Amino acid sequence: MDTDFEVDPEGNSIDTQRKVCSGKERELGFVNVGEYVEPGNSAQTIDKRPVFRDMIARIMREHDVDYVIIYARSRAFRNYIDAGNTKMALEKLGVKLVSAKEDFGDGLMAEAMEAVTDVFNWLQVRMSGEDIKVKMANKVRNGGTASRAKLGYLNVRKRIEGREVRTIETDTERAPYVVMAFEAFATGKYTLESLRATLTEAGLRMRATAKYPARPISLAQLGELLRDRYYLGYVEYEGIEYPGRHEALITPELFERVQKVLDSHSGAGVRKRTHNHYLKGVLWCARCEHRFIVQRAAGNGGEYFYFYCRGRQEGLCDVPYLNVQAVEQEVIRHFATVSFSDEFKATVRERLDEALAGDLGSSQAVRDRLAAQLGALDTKEDNLLDLAADAELPKEKIKEKLISIRDERERIRREVKRLDAELEVGRQVFTLALDLLDRPQELYREAGPSLRKLIVQTIFNKLKLDGKSVTGDELAEPFDVIVPAGRTYDQRGYQRKRPPVAAVAFHEGVSSDDLTSTDLLALALGGTGWSKPVMVGDTGIEPVTSSV
Questions:
Q1: What pairing do the DSSP bridges indicate for beta strands 240-243 and 96-99?
Q2: Are residues 120 and 177 in the same domain?
Q3: Do residue 16 and residue 129 come from a single domain?
Q4: Measuring CA to CA, which residue among 417, 418, 416, 412 is closest to residue 380?
């Protein structure tokens, strides 16, 4: 019986090894009763070599073998322990192991030479492994990718100054699907299952391999993709991240939005349920601070819905079941508390213009300070990456510090990016918010369910119910600044003419269940961001808290 293993270090093929083993059979006058081939397997132990174990099982079962011929001991065994155990196991079965490439003879010295050869083979494997490990670590520290290219990228070979270099390039066929996956999931309207179906329908297929044909992405692969910081431009080795040389496919902002949606699918926030209502997720109990959920009931009068407190469900609250229509009317009534007079809005605009004029002169100083902070962070990161190359130092602590530095760098870069337009954008956002709250009660009353949910979740994080009455609220940005100031400034509840619905950008048919809070704010405020610093020093429209 002979057995072939992998292509050897000199590049000899399975066919070459087969010929060498067959020559040894003829030389010794043996009859081959079976051949076992285990190509492409780099396992370090016999336990992970299924074909070799099948051969041993066959010998134990059939008892028809006297010799097992292998191409070379270095190809059959990766460590001397496996070699010794296999030899002893075969000898108990009356079988001798013969190497076609090595002739040790017989006797004690021959056995000693076999053992020494196995030890040196093991040492060579370990040394080669350490050498590969060092080379991989160096490649990653220099920004290279040490693994097979991830989805959206390709392994390529290039000739640079007459030398072949293996590197990574963007896969123009699949990279757009990766971007599509992040952008779609960030909206909050997809589960992993529905996103996978959408990507598959759009045409995404994984690259074909020797084992598998081109196929749709699996749920596990999709989940890993959406968590993978490689798409931000980083490579990782032994728990430490390094800036990669490959092209980043997504922005840090998009990545963070996706992480928040993934986290929310683990149990936080509004869950997808069978029974939907445009107020679901925003109603909270003022007595026990639990969320209200909607429930369907059937009676003699047919089907109806009601809200009930999760605290009551858990035996912690005595708030009664609430009629849905009664709660809807109470929310409409509460919208009268978030409207403003012309006098208040004129005062706000005046203070904003003053803040804008006063702060423009300081923008360059702020930019210089942020640039200095970026330079200091770059130096710290370089020092930590040098320390990470020392195998004796704790990797986890270095990893934590690197993550902290990179998070701070991204925050500063976002500050620099928006510095020039920050004050003006903040003023525009506040102006748009004031317009939205011109006559919010009428706007909300006349809106359909889709737009109602957009409006209520844009202005409020929470509406607190005690019984059916709204007794308090938690406002979303920037309304958490405007509304308290307006309520204090203008107690008359004066309302101007309602602005046209065009002041609120929305798309009918898109449920706010399908959008993140960032999307809702963008829809309501014309797609811009906002900045609280523009309100600093706005005396005369109290209350302005220290957090402003």
A1: unpaired
A2: no
A3: yes
A4: 412
Regarding pTM above 0.70, the answer is: no
Domain of 116? 2-138
Residues 126 and 39 in one domain: yes
Q: Where residue 199 sits, what CATH number does that domain have?
A: 3.90.1750.20
pLDDT, tens only, 398-429: 777 777 887 787 777 777 666 655 556 666 66
Cis peptide before 543 (omega within 30 of 0): yes
Yes or no: say if 221 and 151 are a contact pair by the CB < 8 Å rule.
Answer: yes
Q: How confident is the model at residue 464 (pLDDT cuts 50, 70, 90)?
A: very high
Q: How many domains does the chain have?
A: 3
The token pair that represents 382 in the structure block: 């370089």
Return the ∠ at Cα 29 (arms to 24 and 33), rounded to 5°: 80
Q: What is the tens place of the pLDDT at every residue in 19-34?
A: 888 888 888 888 888 8
- Whether pLDDT at 495 is above 60: no
Estimate to the nearest angstrom the gap between the alpha carbon of 199 and the chain centroid. 17
> Is residue 35 domain-shared with residue 69, that is, in the same domain?
yes
55 and 12 share one domain: yes
Identify whether residues 162 and 130 lie together within a single domain. Answer: no
Neighbours of 470 (CB within 10 A): 21
Determine the average pLDDT of the residues in 250-255.
Answer: 91
508 within some domain: no
* Residue 82 falls inside a structural domain: yes
Cα–Cα distance for residue pair 355/547, rounded to 1 Å: 17
Question: What average pLDDT does this structure show over 130-135?
Answer: 70
Beta strand ranges found along 366-480 (DSSP E): 460-466, 469-475
Pull the structure tokens for residue 404.
């902290």
